[in-house]
Specification:
Blueprint (H helix, E strand, L loop, with lengths): L10 E4 L12 E8 L2 E4 L5 E2 L6 H8 L16 E7 L31 H15 L2 E7 L5 E7 L4 H11 L8 E4 L4 E2 L7 H4 L5 E5 L1
Parallel strand pairs: 2-5, 6-10
Antiparallel strand pairs: 1-5, 2-3, 3-4, 6-7, 8-9, 8-10
InterPro entries: NSFL1C_SEP_dom_sf, SEP_domain, Ubiquitin-like_domsf, UBX_dom
GO cellular component, one term: nucleus
Pfam families: SEP, UBX
């Protein structure tokens, strides 16, 4: 079946040999030629270099109607429009895959929910990890000094434990003072941040 068209521009007509009246409606096909391939109507992109498309392209080049476009009714007319594009075929936008996880109604208890005690422990651990590291200069009774690093969540008791580790055998009968004028750090449960001694000086007194 011949097609009187140019492969790049124009349009042609594939007609059957029979012209019985009344004539069936025409079949119209648009073939878009991109720089890297072609598409037929709204069909998928087809590459020039794919061997499966060789027969189709040869028919167009010879002004023949490709077999896949021939109508089932041989009396039908086929109109083929060849449309030249000067750019590559635009890749279709990929849609995000829908969420496929399991759902849960709000307020429904979870089988693997964390116990309240464990949650509190995790929260406390996270708080401690997030604490800032500060320096504290300690003046010992004998006049020696040392710069120690603590987290702001450490307590006065932790500072005393550090001193006892650094000065074993000297006993724990001493007080710690800080600030000006110096005030005793008697509450061992207060944190370094609460006591306001971050990046400051602590004096050991007996």
């Amino acid at each position: 079946m011949a097609v009187g068209v140019d492969i790049i521009t124009g349009h042609g007509r594939c007609e059957s040999a029979e012209f019985d009246a009344p004539q069936p409606p025409e079949d119209i096909h648009n073939i878009y030629f991109w720089t890297n391939g072609f598409t037929v109507n709204d069909g998928p992109f087809r590459s020039f270099v794919n061997p499966a498309n060789a027969s189709f392209l040869k028919s167009i080049k010879n002004s023949d109607c490709p077999s896949e476009l021939e109508p089932a009714d041989k009396r039908s007319k086929v109109n083929v429009n060849l449309i030249q594009k000067k750019e590559k075929y635009p890749e279709p936008v990929k849609q995000a895959a829908p969420f496929q996880g399991g759902g849960k109604t709000l307020g429904t208890p979870s089988d693997n929910s964390t116990p309240p005690d464990a949650t509190a422990a995790v929260a406390a651990s996270s708080t401690e990890t997030a604490s800032k590291t500060v320096t504290v200069k300690i003046w010992f009774v004998d006049g020696s000094r040392i710069v120690a690093r603590f987290n702001t969540s450490h307590t006065i008791a932790d500072v005393r434990a550090f001193i006892d580790t650094r000065r074993p055998g000297e006993g724990s009968d001493y007080t710690l003072q800080a600030g000006f004028p110096p005030k005793p750090l008697d509450d061992l449960t207060r944190t370094i941040e609460e006591a306001g001694i971050a990046n400051s000086v602590i004096i050991q007194k007996v």
